[in-house]
Amino acid sequence: MNHSSLPKIPWWKKTTRLIAEATLFAVIFYGVISWQQRNMLATGEQLPIEQLKLLNIQGSVTKYQLNQSEQNTLIYFFAPWCKVCDLSIDNLEKIYQKHSKNLLVLAIVLDWQSLNEIDEFLNKHQLSMPILLGDNNTRNQFNINGYPSYYLISKDGKVLARSRGYSTEVGLQWQLKLNDSI
């Protein structure tokens, strides 16, 4: 069959179909994101703790005041076995490198079996941001049920933004600008 013999579809029908498909994609994408975040702490919610007190990777107790801070805090929860964490943590490191003067960035490792497992992950990525060792209590306090999970916390301890899954450096920067954190 010759292509010239096919009826031409008007441009407005093509455009209408494209808009409908893009809208459907956006609705599905938003639905998946909302479903993933359904059990996380709500935006605008006060954190259930005022102070974060965990061991760092050197074995020292580290304390961070989350409700009376001088700057906003970005907390990234990850597991060393998580492939998405493996792909996204370098984006977080770039954010830390660019904004550590006006944003506290913390990475909390959860769901780990041994310190060797954590060391291998950290050596692979050469991270300079603070790494803290979380536990089941930490996971429960922040309602973490998947990795990676992020919370952007205000100076007064309220959840400004949250996310679960892969985030690009651009996506993280956009979220920080949206919430006046950088």
SSE topology sketch:
Elements lengths: L10 H26 L14 E6 L4 E5 L6 E7 L4 H17 L3 E7 L5 H11 L5 E3 L2 H6 L7 E5 L5 E6 L4 H10 L4
Parallel strand pairs: 3-4, 4-5
Antiparallel strand pairs: 1-2, 1-5, 3-6, 6-7
Could you please describe the fold and organization of this structure?
The chain has 182 residues and is of the alpha/beta class. The protein folds into two domains: 10-36; 51-178, Glutaredoxin. Helices cover 38% and strands 21% of the residues. The protein has five helices and seven strands. It has helices at residues 11-36, 83-99, 115-125, 136-141, 169-178, and strands spanning 51-56, 61-65, 72-78, 103-109, 131-133, 149-153, 159-164. The protein has a seven-stranded mixed sheet, with helices on one face. α3 links the parallel β4 (103-109) and β5. It is elongated.
Q: What's the name of the CATH homologous superfamily of the largest domain? A: Glutaredoxin
- The total domain count is 2
The beta-strand count equals: 7
CATH class of the largest domain: Alpha Beta
What is the C-alpha radius of gyration, as a whole number of Å?
A: 21 Å
How would the global form be characterised? elongated
Helix content: 25-40%
Instruction: Output the structural class.
Output: alpha/beta
- Secondary-structure element series: HEEEHEHEHEEH
Strand count, sense and barrel status of the largest sheet are: 7 strands, mixed
CATH architecture group name of the largest domain = 3-Layer(aba) Sandwich
Walk across the major sheet and give the strand order.
Answer: 2-1-5-4-3-6-7
Mean pLDDT: 88
How large is the count of helical segments? 5
